[in-house]
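Reading is simple: the token line describes the chain's fold. The lines below illustrate.

. . .
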Amino acid sequence: MSEVVTGEAVVVEVRVAQLPSRALAFLIDWAVQWAVIILAVVLVAQASLVTDESLATGLLILFVVLVTVGYPVAFETITRGRSLGKLALGLRVVSDDGGPERFRQALFRGLAGFLEFWTFVGAPALITSLLNQRGKRLGDVFAGTTVIGERSPHQAPPPEMPPPLASWAATLELSGLSDDLANTARQYLSRWHQLSPRMREEMGLRVAGQISAQVAPPPPPGVPPYAYLAAVLAERRRREEMRLARARSTPPPYGPQGYGAQGHRVPAPPPPPPPQPREAGPPHGEAPRTSGGFVPPV
């Protein structure tokens, strides 16, 4: 993961594409480009039989430039940073600020790619990618872009609540449990089957000891670390789901549907009374009388 700062000074975490996935995406694009070049050579060779040889050579050079430079520029501009290879691998080119790739940046990458891959057989791109923290090649450095992965890695399902610990977990005080420690416990549970028995025991005791220092009450006697951590995370997830469900189901006090905060229908306001006919005023020069008989001064 890497952090980018947008134009609004917002820090966004992105998953930078790794070198193997970028190399495989390039090989797919490279194979497509060579197929188009071979087809262009065959067509130009057929056309050279009826046209001038210099014209055929010029057409061949034009086709090669369009395929080697125009192919990545056109695809990345139209699809906002994805060529056929990147589309197959779930990659995308974005600006350093997290925005979509622009035509100017795609042009810089295409021209630099012609030198990196077609002139120097990819050596500059490989060296720069290994030295750069974000795996950028020269084209990315010049254009101010980064290749990211759009497909999130497969995540293990959340741990389930052990039935014998359900009643105990309902009494837990989880307000002191930090997100970082909960993520550590989640990673341990997801890799539990891949660890050796000794490593399971050592890591489980260490993580369970750290969580028990932030969670109360302590687990019942004889509970293994795996079950203890699963119960804590399952209860934490259950409470979070309940909180979100309550937040979504709470209607506004005076919403567009006309329901109050307790879910009761708010009656519509009564219609305004019809206008009353205006009574004839007093004769000219005489002050109006009030209901109590008081005559205001003229």
Remarks:
- Residues 128 and 137 are 5 Å apart (CA to CA).
